[in-house]
Amino acid sequence: MDKLEREPHIAAVIFDLDGVIANTVYYHYLSWQQLADEEGIPFDKHTHDEGMLGLNREDALQYLLGDRASKLSPIQQQLLLNRKNDYYLQLINELNYDNLLPGIGNLLVELHAAGIKVALGSSSKNAEIVLQRLKIRHLFDFLADGNSVSNLKPCPDVFLYAAEALGVAPANCLVVEDAPAGIAAGLAAGMWVLGVGPYERLARAHLVLPTLADIGWADIVEKVNYYHKSGG
């Protein structure tokens, strides 16, 4: 874990999208699975979760293709990405507020009421569509996604871009992530990082919770303060 020396004063929270706000990770898996099946590429959910979770779509395609990537031109690879994205957009067409992961809806409302700035920091290029389908776009002050920066996670650019837009110093931001690449990006940005999911996968985060269900903003602040006072 990377220790932050300053006393915590969190003025903004930057959320990842897939696997934190809604389980769109599963839709990504299904769309990659369809593409893999059509192309005759061995693939399963374990392969997706272990190797592709948190990657941007270009890097995920490279992982899926493996040695096949060198045999395909950039145009051919882009056509594959377009097909995968079409499958994904079809799958998320029915998303609504009920698809939010447990606790996230209440937490967003609490943050809004407390005057804490909220942003999205996602590698997804469909983030705007997803938030609108989930009926929560109005609860975000800013959206930084795969269209916003050139260097995506594990580079810190998307989080730094969001913090700058919010007018909040990185040390006063809390990143909420569920993937190792996102954890690395948040730490590289010099922000507090809360991992949501299995500790084994997210151990580098300052704090790790199995879920956001039944967790309020006051609980998170208390845990961050305790972490700081205990020296991590």
Automatic annotation (TrEMBL):
Binding site for substrate: 16-18, 32, 52-57, 84, 122-126, 153
Keywords, comma-separated and alphabetical: Carbohydrate metabolism, Isomerase, Magnesium, Metal-binding, Phosphoprotein
Superkingdom of the source species: Bacteria
Catalytic residues of the enzyme: D16 (nucleophile), D18 (proton donor/acceptor)
Positions that bind Mg(2+): D16, D18, E177, D178
Swiss-Prot/TrEMBL cofactor(s): Mg(2+)
Top class in the EC scheme: isomerase
Family classification: Belongs to the HAD-like hydrolase superfamily. CbbY/CbbZ/Gph/YieH family.
The protein's name: Beta-phosphoglucomutase
Provenance organism: Chamaesiphon polymorphus CCALA 037
